[in-house]
């Protein structure tokens, strides 16, 4: 299954599953559903509910 990219609706930060968020302890290759629910956007601090899947077509 290809990796997804999700964008923060509040600030535009992109979470890329292939890259993860190593600075926050999220290893490369971590699928969005496996990111802890208490993870916050590293740019603006909002929670996961603000993220939407980027259409890569």
In words, what does this structure look like?
There is one protein chain. This protein has 57 residues and is mainly β. It has a single domain (5-53), classed as Rubrerythrin, domain 2, CATH 2.20.28. The chain is 0% helix and 18% strand. It is built from no helices and three strands. The chain has strands at residues 5-8, 14-16, 51-53. Strands 2-1-3 form a three-stranded antiparallel β-sheet, with no helix packed on it. A hairpin with a 5-residue loop joins strand 1 and strand 2 (14-16). The chain is globular and about 25 Å long. The model has no long low-confidence stretch (mean pLDDT 96).
How does the SSE layout of this entry go?
Elements lengths: L4 E4 L5 E3 L34 E3 L4
CATH fold description: Rubrerythrin, domain 2
- Strand proportion, as a percent range, falls in 15-25%
Q: Helix proportion of residues, in percent?
A: under 10%
Main sheet?
3 strands, antiparallel
Number of domains: 1
Radius of gyration over alpha carbons? 10 Å
The CATH class assignment is: Mainly Beta
Question: Count the helices. How many?
Answer: 0
In terms of per-residue confidence, which ranges show pLDDT below 50 for 5 or more consecutive residues? none
Class of secondary structure makeup: mainly beta
The quaternary organization reads as single chain
Please tally the β strands and state the result.
Answer: 3
Level-2 CATH architecture? Single Sheet
């Amino acid at each position: 299954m290809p990796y997804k990219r999700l964008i923060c609706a509040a600030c535009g930060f992109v979470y890329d599953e292939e890259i993860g968020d190593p600075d926050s302890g999220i290893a490369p290759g971590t699928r969005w559903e496996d990111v802890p629910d208490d993870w916050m956007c590293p740019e603006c601090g909002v929670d996961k509910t603000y993220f939407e899947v980027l259409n890569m077509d």
